[in-house]
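2024-03-11 09:14:02 DEBUG pipeline.ingest accepted 1 chain
2024-03-11 09:14:02 DEBUG pipeline.ingest length=192
2024-03-11 09:14:03 DEBUG pipeline.predict start
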Amino acid sequence: GNGAEEAITSCDGIRQHVFSGGGGGGDIRRVAIFAHAGAGKSWMMAQLKRKCSKARKGAAVEWVPVFVAVQAIANALHVLFAGRAPADLAVAAAAALTIAWLIERVVGPQMDPAIVDVLREAAASDRVVFVFDGVDEGGALCEVIEDFILEVGRGHRVVVTSRPEGVRRQLYERDGYLLLSLQPLTAAQQQE
């Protein structure tokens, strides 16, 4: 990333950036989408997940989208490490955060075990796209979770959303994320 933001108004544009080129290796794409509260970030990510799920059937590489609300990560960590002092909580959370933990403790409990197996296999074979919604919503663990997300992005396709002021933007620039600015959605887009 060169630090400049590109304006985006649909999830088709996001999909194009995330899935351009072949899969695996050095062609991993990372996208950070910034927009103010109420601009439609979460809605856009739900649309992206839906369209990716449909598009992957029969494709050369079948991508598996994994939608994760950052608040859910923070909540799971607070439950796991209840009663710890803030400094101890941050250290324990950083040690616990792995893709396996994310699938088992945050995403998996809401899913059929067979689907959880598919997620594990997709992550192991580099066919997963992690969609982290609300990076700025991690509360006291925001930086710890953000560090984890950046690490995931070094090995997998990742899309993150955040309010512009809610992240350490320079880290996304350093890691080569394509920076997008979500323009407010039209009423027609919100009805899709």
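2024-03-11 09:14:41 DEBUG pipeline.report The radius of gyration is 16 Å.
2024-03-11 09:14:41 DEBUG pipeline.predict end
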